Amino acid sequence: MDRLFYPAVFHRAEEGGFWVTFPDIPECMTQGDDMQQAYEMAVDALGLSLTTMEENKEELPKASEPEDINTEDGFLVVVQFDLAEYRRKHCSRAVKKTLSIPEWLNDAAVKSGVNFSQVLQEALLEKVK
Q1: CA 113 to chain centre
Q2: CA 9 – CA 76 distance, rounded (Å)
Q3: Which of 2, 14, 97, 116 has its CA 20 to 30 A from that of 58?
Q4: What PANTHER family does the entry give (predicted)?
Q5: How far apart are CA 9 and CA 100, in angstroms?
Q6: Burial (0-12, 13-18, 19+ Cβ within 10 Å), 7
């Protein structure tokens, strides 16, 4: 469930550009000077909303089916959000972990100059793919 897709309604702004709303997340709105900027801002706004919900232990809303969305004075765009990629970019605060390994393995790794943190990170990244 790392890649999420939410429908967004892009509205043309009178002064130019677009403003964007997400029917499934009413508090999530943004704008951009052109289509590309509006889409990029929509991805960022969606990411901020979803990660805030996740941090607050709220259930993420189920995305509506595109055909069920009333676009009123705008048009529908499905916005893709990669939750795992967002976490990698924005949630990289280091946390300390304590672990146990056999003494002989520790001695051999120290002798070889192994970076324990790096090895653990690489192994965990491989495991969670």
Answers
A1: 35
A2: 5
A3: 97
A4: ANTITOXIN HICB
A5: 51
A6: buried
